[in-house]
User: Fold this.
Amino acid sequence: MRLEGMRAIVTGAASGIGAATAGLFASEGAQVLAIDLPGTGLAGAHAGQPNIVPFQANIAGETAGKEIVAAALERFGGLDILVNNAGTGSNALAEVLPIEEWDRVFAVNIRGMFLLCQAAIPALRESRRGRIVNVASVMAERTDYGLAAYAASKAGVAGLTRTLALELGKFGITANYILPGAIYTGMTRQNFDQDHIRQVWERKSPLKRLGQGIDIARGILFLASEDGSFVTGHGLVIDGGLTLRT
Ligand SMILES: NC(=O)c1ccc[n+]([C@@H]2O[C@H](COP(=O)([O-])OP(=O)(O)OC[C@H]3O[C@@H](n4cnc5c(N)ncnc54)[C@H](O)[C@@H]3O)[C@@H](O)[C@H]2O)c1
Assistant:
């Protein structure tokens, strides 16, 4: 029970990495406010788990950060852990990438994340052992064709998180980010369900498999628990060795 008595927010919790994280946190003793968009099956994803409270919100909304934190305080009376996992993909060559698409990606992957961090800071200060874990991507440090908006937004997650670590350390708050590799989730299912695509990515990894949500959730748990209490400003790569070779 590594999170006994802890109160957490996990965004993007209806699917993939976020769903696995909310489930793992609850099984380790945390109370979890699970955030996702309406119509994503959020409540069904965590049915029968009394320590997981579903809360529908679009984190890109102007007031969503404040509403989410207010809901956590109302339900749990405080907040110890914020996991900013919700994210959105994009695939268009830079030359033809519509600015509306750029803005859509940044509104979720960076702006929404920032607003939620900002709204949570007073409660995390109150906790005296606050934890922020932001989900970036190996694409924060690399890229691929069509990933201008996605890679730029994920590089932004790294810069944001390092700055939070610097500014919030004096309040006992750590801030770290995760760089997942190729993980089988809602975001990637359409690609990885195609044998020829899945096999290419499995072969790229020394461990010869795709990651699963739980592989990332375990890293998030480490950073959110007492085990990670002296780790801050760090980017934890969890990619099964995918990026070892250039
Ligand atoms: N799957 C991978 O290979 C991979 C690799 C690197 C990084 N990531 C990152 O991991 C995170 C989780 O993605 P996943 O792979 O589990 O995908 P997923 O699609 O299974 O889950 C993402 C969840 O975020 C939710 N979400 C999206 N926009 C939202 C918004 N505006 N407000 C609230 N919720 C919103 C979605 O509804 C979805 O349930 C993302 O930030 C993604 O960029 C994934």
Observations:
- The domain at 7-238 is CATH 3.40.50.720 (Rossmann fold).
- Residues 11-12, 14-18, 35-37, 40, 58-60, 85-88, 108, 112, 135, 137, 180, 182-183, 185-188, 213 surround nicotinamide-adenine-dinucleotide (CB under 6 Å).
- Helices lie at 16-27, 42-45, 64-76, 99-127, 148-168, 189-192, 195-204, 213-224.
